[in-house]
Amino acid sequence: MQTQLAPEYKNTLDGQAAEAILRKCVHCGFCTATCPTYQLLGDELDGPRGRIYLMKQVLEGAEPTRKTQLHLDRCLTCRNCESTCPSGVDYGHLIDIGRKIVDAKVPRPAGEKAVRWLLKEGLTSPAFGPAMKLGQLVRGLLPASLKNKVPAKQNAGTWPTRTHARKVLMLAGCVQPAMMPNINFATARVLDAAGIQTVIAPEAGCCGAVKFHLNDQEGGMAQMRANIDAWWPLLEQGVEAIVMNASGCGVTVRDYGHILADDPTHAHKAARVSLLTRDLSELLPELVPLLKPQLTRQPDAKQVIGFHPPCTLQHGQQLKGGVEQHLSAMGFTVMVAKNEAHLCCGSAGTYSVLNPGLSYQLRDRKLGHLSELKPDVITSANIGCITHLQSGTPTPVRHWVELLDEALS
Prior knowledge:
alpha/beta; 4-stranded parallel β-sheet; 51% helix
């Protein structure tokens, strides 16, 4: 796609990066076939190709409007279009640039601005944990819209205390320890059973995704630098990998090298952090032979586990089929939906708060396809997907590592 950058963008890093991405687009429209919002709304401007045209116009000097902003806001950033694109268009990075430029020129209404500020500051605040505990205490009294965001209180059990020569870092995250602490504890126990010690750097906090995707890119990058600084001494001591059990965080940390490529102090460290980041499912090939003999409860072959692969896993990180393959090798009966397994569930970070109408339509569509499997439990690999899907079904929705942990304990 030929692009003539406006003078204000011509010699900027964002302008040059956007132009390089736009040049790969050949207008084919394959991306519209797998775009969730295009499928729901049928509007070209609510599909990747239409949004690319909007961003191209702005980069060429057209004045963005509130309508431009809304079409970009409605993108889930699921990156399904990247999996479909035959030309390798890096749409995820392009939409980050487009939103940044449009938001700088189009003021948001006061109410919308306040909600976005509360999300980016509240979810990443130390006060989030106490607030979640309070919400769980009064959960039964909460209106449905709030109750959907407050999972029932979990008993996470105990953290393993053994020391191993092999060590990996794990990001506790900003919301997961408060909302579903058992995911982190189960991960540590499973890795401990395989002779791997899980280490958490207390100074590491939010991965930076919440602020970055709410267009506080400077705030998000500050969190990324803080995490790198917290991890660096441990990486220099020989910690072999940074293991992510939330694919939404994983796809962001894997992108540190790109996001901080021009950072004068952290570029080389960010590149190494990205290189060492692994989704938990990527460890399964070596974990399965170590853990299978240790199963204290053989999985019930009649228990159907429906697996929803998050977009951040299958499209953002291009990791497909690993969870199903390796859990099946351990005796679990794992199935994915026969229809639209590639489509987003509608969670998409803070999207379910900012665009609830579209988000809940996608959730119900996803649950409808999963229900055809008649699952006893639904699993996923990202806390956002897990809480979002659970809000629409009585079937338990859990992280897959929790089932493996129970079979070992």
